[in-house]
Amino acid sequence: MFAKSVIALYERTHANADEETKRTGLGKVAGIVGLLSNIVLFVIKLATGLFSGSIAIMADAFNNLSDTAGSIVTLVGFKVAGKRPDRGHPFGHERFEYISGVLVSMLMIFAGLDFVQSSIGKIQHPTADRITFVVLITLLLSIFIKLWQNLFYRQMGDEISSDTLKATAMDSQTDVVATTAVLISAVLSQFAHIQIDGWIGLFVALYLIYEGIQSIRGSVNQLIGIRPSDAEVQKYTDQLSKYDDILGFHDLMIHHYGPTQIFATVHIELDSRWSLDQAHEEIDKIERDFQKKFNVELVGHIDPIDIDDRLTAEVYERLQTIIQEMGGGLHTHDFHIEPGPHHTRIVQFDVVVPDNYPEDDKTLNLRILADLRRYYPNVTTEIDFDHNYLGHDHTVL
């Protein structure tokens, strides 16, 4: 409820803000809320840990300190990521969010390594902790605050499509697990006189290190560039399938330069009898639709298709038979026949090759050409082999 109230208040006070400004503003608000709540948790837990002598509680406190530093980095990250594109960064600055994610993850790892050493010392030389009713209440309160943080970050992350806030929500969820483990240790120490504080502290420390490494992997993968989700690919494919005037499409590529800076390219098949102006108008319409509906900068490449040429249809059918006999999930698109020198024909097409296909491109090229020449001795081939395009082709040829 709190996140929805924050969003509603922001929208009332910034009624004329565009989506990018709104996203940056709400991201900063989320960072400030996280900063304040994590500072409160750190101070309370550190005081409780020092009073009780519990390594596990102190480790959990410094886990919250790393969350505090993370909130600061989140604030800086949203400020930098919200900067407009400039001459040196024509695709914007949104990938800085991923850099801030790496910095937060490193803080988590360093805190974890420090408490591994402290926890091992406590395991080797166990001492009784002063666990009181106030300590137990403090840990329960911490769990409830972290559950609230998880819900807040998740709702804010969904509202502005922020992977950073969604990851922070997951971090709050893992903090609930860690603090619950500390609470179990405190209860056992108080009521069963079982001293496992050092082991719980080690568990929390290793958990911090694990989460930090996983978070770094996620941020680095985003910086390098990862395959978009199947849902995103399907969303764009469904939109392209709605245009009745195009014959088909293939070779969809999607590039993310941040959570909202998305660029895409696709080959769109059109009737070769269309004028250049008509084809350009159709592509422009599709590109405008993608910008308006998805905020995606789409570039459409025109593939003219001669749908009435008898030779084209005949050679295409023969090629499909050859490809099917080869097996392994091969398929083709972007098929053309052009006149070549000395009364020859140049057959141009792309072959989509699955990752696990056993033969290399050169071998495939020679096999396809040899099989085609058995039926059409005067042809040669120009084949592009596709390995990294997204989704399924929707091609007429």
Automatic annotation (TrEMBL):
Membrane topology: Multi-pass membrane protein
GO annotations of cellular component type: membrane
Sequence ranges assigned to domain Cation efflux protein transmembrane in this UniProt record: 32-223
Molecular function, one GO term: monoatomic cation transmembrane transporter activity
Pfam families: Cation_efflux (PF01545), ZT_dimer (PF16916)
Gene3D superfamilies: Cation efflux protein transmembrane domain, Cation efflux protein, cytoplasmic domain
Residue intervals passing through the bilayer: 32-59, 98-116, 128-148
Chief location bin: membrane
InterPro entries on file: Cation_efflux, Cation_efflux_CTD, Cation_efflux_CTD_sf, Cation_efflux_TM, Cation_efflux_TMD_sf, CDF_Transporter
Localization of this protein: Membrane
Cation efflux protein cytoplasmic domain mapped to chain residues: 228-304
Keywords: Membrane, Transmembrane, Transmembrane helix, Transport
Keyword Acyltransferase attributed: no
Classification via NCBIfam families: CDF
Family membership: Belongs to the cation diffusion facilitator (CDF) transporter (TC 2.A.4) family.
Name of this protein: Uncharacterized protein
Source organism per UniProt: Schleiferilactobacillus perolens DSM 12744
